[in-house]
Predict the 3D structure of the following.
Amino acid sequence: MPRPSSPRRSRLVSPRFLLLAVAVAGLAVPLAAQTRADKNASAKHAADKNASGEIVNVYSYRQPFLVEPLFEKFTQTTGIGVRVIFAKKGLVERVKTEGENSPADVLLTIDISRLIHAAETVAQPVPSPVLEKFIPATARSSDDLWFALTYRARVAYVSRARVRQDTLSYGALAGPEFKGRICMRSGQHPYNNALFASQLAHLGEPAFRTWLRGVKNNLSEKPSGNDRAQVRRIYAGSCDVAIGNTYYMGKMQTNSQKPEQKDWARAARIIFPDAQGRGTHVNVSGMVMAKHAPNRDNALKLMEFLVSEEAQRLYAEVNFEYPVRAGVAPSARVAKWGTLRADTLPLETIAAFRKRASEIVDEIGFNN
Ligand SMILES: [Fe+2]
């Protein structure tokens, strides 16, 4: 049975309207707010036609442009309105503070560490044959608490001019041929932490230490900057192999606001490490259902909608990611970079090695 919304919540929103994008105080910039307001207008129109009075509340760490098209489709399909709160941080803590009165139904986030944090702090299990069928077991929790929606592969960006090979393994990054030629962001950043955790899980601690020391010795400079900054270093000639997430290639290739990034992207190509072996390390974006979700049935409908073929294609395409659902192809642009064969080590297993990987990064002074 659906649980009714509490009176406090139902006062917030007229059930006739779909209210997309409630900006969190202090985080919304005026331009973004304006964009969201514009989108509200069309979304509201769609909701009027499908007015069912049903809603689902989403707390989203993912940006409006990524999820609003999905929610509009969901409302068109089901008649269920979607209210969203966007923020860059603090949403899990907010749900926790709100406790049993929290209006949150579904949380959307990125990165396995943040997904697990949400799962452990504010989620409820969602036993769903649909989610089980379409999300690979390696990309959801064994206790039904979190579910991945998209993959982002952590790959090698290599110089078109200075690197000839077409294949590469993560192991080779520690080899003598890459002395002084590798660049990457901090070893403690969650993206590298998950990559290192997967290496630790595969290699065991002694071999992992040796590998990580080898990579450190091959760095062209101290880890700093974000993933895109490493590709800029390839462009500038200061390193030949950078570690980065795949979607940044798409973001750089299409960046009309900072067209210099198109040049960075042109200087590099992607190699999927270990594509011929155990598979390339992937991280995810994903979702959990809030423990006290007041609109549980609608939340389940939304979560199951997000693994539909249409939603998977849309969601992956808009951020140059990969659908988790088998049989749904990535966008044409993403497909051009090569074929992703994801490592089959469960993300849950990788997550269990995060803490130790982080300690070893400090022990060997990777960032120093
Ligand atoms: Fe990112």
Observations:
- Residues 151-280+335-363 form a domain with the D-Maltodextrin-Binding Protein; domain 2 fold (CATH 3.40.190.10).
- Residues 6 and 294 are 8 Å apart (CA to CA).
